[in-house]
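quick one, 202 residues, struct below
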Amino acid sequence: MISTRYLPATAAVLAFALVPTVLHTYVGMTESDGKTTAAINHRLADLDGIDTGRSAVWVEEQYGATDFIERRYTSGVTLFAARSYDPKRLYHHPELGVAHGRSYESVAVTRVSTPSGSLPVHVLTGQGGLACYVLLYNGEFVENPLSFQARQVFSMLVSPRRQMTLFFSQGPAAPEATGSPVARILVAAVDSFLAQTPTAIR
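---
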């Protein structure tokens, strides 16, 4: 039995604990920046992309995303971009989904200078060739997902959910990852996405 003198404090703690549940489960509060992956140009790095016909049902089940594109280029590069209100589903080994069946053995993060600033590009190499990806959340690029999670854990509990954007490109191996078609198409996609004029948010 709880003493009555502890009831106000207990009630306050329980009420605070219910805030995330109410906001995200019942109210479903989200905050959109008005941007979309559909605004990414089909022509990137002087190459034309063709939509692959990736299943929208698969993307939603895998990443919790309804806003996505996937395009194939003549250089053998495939570009995938998706936005989700569940960041962890995008930043936790994204290659296991979009690059399923390909084997990657090493991971590194390298910085690439772009018109949008210094871009932290996650580089994966292995038998599957070369893959690169970039993570964007609330206007900032995510270099270390674990640090990102630690920084955002409290605000994500009490604030409306925001979308994380994953840009993922894969293709043939190259001696220099940052100068490869895989990286060039990825960087061009990020720049194209950021350059769009957001739609009005209602």
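The chain has two domains: 1-30, 32-195.
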